[in-house]
C-alpha cells in the first residue's frame, strides 16, 4: 500500500446533531445530518498516529455534500517531520435510483468510488471496485458517549476486510 495510504485522512469525522443543521437539512439528506459540520479527530493504525480536521458541508444548492480533510501524520523514521494528507470526497444522490454514492480523491493520487448504506447514526461507504481489485470500507458510527467511531478496512482480492486504521472524532 502506497505511503500511509489515504485513509488516515478518513479518521477525522465526528458527530452530534446540530439543531441549525437539522432545520436546514433537505429530507433526503437527513440520514447524514449527524455528520454535517466541522470536526476534529485522531486515530491510529498501520500508517501510525495522526490528527486532523475536516468539514462536511452542503454545496451546489444542497445537491451534494463535500468533505474536505487535512491530516497531520506523526513523525516516523522515514519521515521525521511527519506528513500531510489531504483529501476531498463528494457525496451525491444517484439520479433515478435515489441511492447515495461518493467519490474520493486525495493528494497521493488515489480515487475511490463508494456505494453508501445508511442506518440510524451509521454510514457505511463500501467501494465497488470491479473484478479482482482491492476493496475499501469506511464506517462511521455515532456512539452513545457522543464520539464518532471511524473504521477504515481494506480487503485484498478474494479476502475479507481487515481494519487498516481507526479512530474517533468530535465536533469542533
Summarize the structure.
Helix content is 3%, strand content 51%.
Unreliable residue stretches: 1-21
* Total domain modules: 1
N-to-C order of helices and strands: HEEEEEEEEEE
Specify the CATH architecture.
Beta Barrel
* Mean pLDDT reading: 82
Total strands: 10
Largest sheet: 10 strands, antiparallel, barrel
User: Helix/strand-derived class?
Assistant: mainly beta
Strand content: over 45%
The value of Rg in angstroms is 16 Å
CATH first level: Mainly Beta
Description of the structure:
This protein has one helix spanning 19-24; strands spanning 37-45, 50-59, 64-73, 83-93, 100-106, 111-119, 122-127, 135-142, 148-155, 162-171. With 172 residues, the protein is mainly beta. The protein has a single domain, classed as Beta Barrel (Lipocalin), CATH 2.40.128. The protein has a ten-stranded antiparallel β-barrel. Strand 2 and strand 3 form a beta hairpin. The protein starts with 18 loop residues before the first helix and ends with a strand. Residues 1-21 have low confidence and may be disordered.
Give the SSE map.
Elements: H1 19-24, E1 37-45, E2 50-59, E3 64-73, E4 83-93, E5 100-106, E6 111-119, E7 122-127, E8 135-142, E9 148-155, E10 162-171
Antiparallel strand pairs: 1-2, 1-10, 2-3, 3-4, 4-5, 5-6, 6-7, 7-8, 8-9, 9-10
Features:
single chain; 172 residues; mainly beta; Lipocalin; ten-stranded antiparallel beta barrel; globular
Amino acid at each position: 500500500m502506497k505511503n500511509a495510504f489515504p485513509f488516515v485522512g478518513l479518521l477525522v469525522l465526528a458527530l452530534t446533531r446540530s439543531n441549525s443543521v437539522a432545520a436546514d437539512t433537505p429530507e433526503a439528506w437527513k440520514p447524514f445530518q449527524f455528520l454535517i459540520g466541522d470536526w476534529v479527530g485522531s486515530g491510529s493504525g498501520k500508517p501510525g498516529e495522526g490528527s486532523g480536521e475536516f468539514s462536511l458541508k452542503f454545496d451546489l444548492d444542497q445537491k451534494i455534500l463535500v468533505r474536505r480533510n487535512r491530516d497531520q501524520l506523526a513523525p516516523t523514521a522515514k519521515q521525521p517531520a511527519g506528513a500531510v494528507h489531504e483529501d476531498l470526497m463528494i457525496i451525491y444522490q444517484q439520479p433515478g435510483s435515489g441511492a447515495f454514492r461518493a467519490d474520493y480523491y486525495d493528494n497521493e493520487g488515489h480515487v475511490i468510488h463508494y456505494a453508501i448504506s445508511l442506518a440510524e447514526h451509521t454510514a457505511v461507504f463500501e467501494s465497488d471496485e470491479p473484478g479482482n481489485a482491492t476493496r475499501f470500507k469506511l464506517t462511521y458510527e455515532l456512539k452513545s458517549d457522543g464520539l464518532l467511531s471511524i473504521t477504515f478496512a481494506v480487503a485484498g482480492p478474494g479476502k475479507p476486510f481487515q481494519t487498516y486504521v481507526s479512530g474517533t472524532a468530535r465536533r469542533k
